[in-house]
Design a protein that fits this description.
Layout (H helix, E strand, L loop, with lengths): L30 H13 L2 H16 L8 H43 L15 H22 L2 H11 L2 E3 L2 E3 L9
Antiparallel strand pairs: 1-2
Amino acid sequence: MPAHRRADGHGAPASSRPGRARAARATPGTLFGRVSKHASRSAGSPWTFAFALAVVLAWLAVAPFFRFSDSWQLAINTATTIVTFLMVFLIQNTQNRGTEAIQIKLDELIRVTEAASNTLLDLEELDEKTLELHRRRYERLAEIARREQQTPSERIDHDTASGATHHAGTTSVPRQSTTSH
């Protein structure tokens, strides 16, 4: 694979991608990143679930000693609120790391696939309007690919329902409005 971008948009090296250099494994990461990675692994373990279940069962077991008081209820409500509040950030961090890793892997697949267009790299950085244009383009390509897989009788049935017409081996599909509501 050439180390430069060719005129057709193929062959850009991963190192030329802005914002992706931070994915290197050699850097230890931030303290928050390391702690959240460890905490997310721990929080998802069966042992953590068993511990949480044991806490709830212990809380229920001491209920008669506190006569099911407001303080007894407040203790578990406060604890669960704090844990939930902290878990929101932990889950978001884990989701962000996972999404970034998947995006980098997809970008690399696009980069090394000869027939793919490198213009699709970093789509996640584009505005909503531009993303919508790309989405519509790929919906049209998917529809064409599905039509190529259909038998002639399936095409006729589909075209009759959609209002498309056939002329000398070609298909004309009615235009749809591109304005959004």
